[in-house]
Write a structure and sequence with these properties.
The protein is α+β, with helices and mostly antiparallel strands. The chain is about 50% helix and about 15% strand. It is built from eight helices and ten strands. The relative contact order is 0.11.
């Protein structure tokens, strides 16, 4: 008996899976032998099913993602360049004490009791730091640095109160040199060591942060020690770039501000680069 095509096509899924009875299988095969349309329908059933298309990101979301990556890339580069600029500025404005020589300073007593001091040696970029009264004595420091303006014949005046105390010249190369008045004894001004203490504190924070990260390696709340480790590492790099392996400073406040600024810029650049890396995955 010849079966209609509609009935055969209803049986094709079962036939393709081998679930038909022998009699039904024989009937379907007999029909397929003479019907090309049903054979084509069976061939289409045996083709692999196409994979569903991946959902496409909306164009607005894609633009926002690209803009965020571009912003993070620019921010990383800008902060890194600023950190290098701060380091360069620290080197270009680094103060170097002028070594003492007898002809460097001339002092002259004025009629009102003040003292006029003149730097007689022509100089290139000397910087005069005003005197200060300290332990019944006045201390004069003259600096030179690469970006200082060229000048010579600089003068400054000691008030009558300051002139009543001895005036010393400090060059951090031994005992201070007496320029005016009478000295009660030897005086020596030493470079400050505060940057060494800050560096030791930073190394302690660095080791503590690394230890906390190791102890919390299997837990999620690791952001605080990670940021502590990052900033302390950047502070160490900034100190090495600006001061090298020395913790001595003739101007600790200035040096510390340069180191802190460079460390903040380096850590900001590292955070932006890390965020950019997460978005690129």
């Amino acid at each position: 008996m010849k079966l209609p095509c509609n009935l055969i096509r209803d049986l094709l899924p079962l036939y393709g899976e081998g679930l038909c009875s022998p009699e039904t299988t024989d009937a379907v095969q007999e029909h397929l032998a003479v019907c090309s349309e049903c054979r084509e329908a069976l061939k289409n059933l045996q083709l692999p099913a196409p994979l569903p298309p991946e959902p496409a990101l909306p164009l607005r979301t894609l633009k926002r993602e690209l803009a965020r990556r571009w912003f993070l890339s620019v921010l990383t580069a800008v902060l890194l360049v600023l950190a290098l600029a701060v380091t360069a500025a620290a080197w270009m404005t680094r103060r170097t004490p002028v070594p003492f020589s007898p002809e460097l300073i001339q002092t002259e007593l004025q009629s009102d009791g003040s003292v006029l001091a003149t730097i007689t040696v022509p100089n290139s970029g000397f910087r005069l730091q005003r005197t200060r009264v300290e332990k019944n004595a006045c201390f004069l420091e003259i600096w030179t640095y690469p970006l200082a303006p060229r000048s010579s014949g600089q003068q400054f005046t000691l008030s009558p109160t300051e002139a009543a105390s001895p005036l010393y010249y400090t060059d951090y190369q031994g005992e201070d040199h007496l320029l005016w008045g009478e000295a009660d004894g030897g005086v020596q001004t030493l470079p400050r060591l505060v940057l060494s203490y800050y560096l030791l504190l930073d190394l302690g924070i660095l080791l503590l942060s690394a230890l906390l990260l190791f102890l919390l390696r299997r837990q999620k709340p690791r952001r605080v020690p990670a940021h502590m480790l990052l900033f302390s590492g950047c502070y160490l790099i900034a100190h090495l770039c600006i001061k090298g392996f020395s913790g001595l400073s003739m101007d600790a406040g200035r040096d510390f501000l340069f180191i802190l600024s460079a460390a903040a810029l380096l850590s900001g650049s590292a955070l932006a680069a890390g965020r950019l890396r997460q978005l690129s995955r």
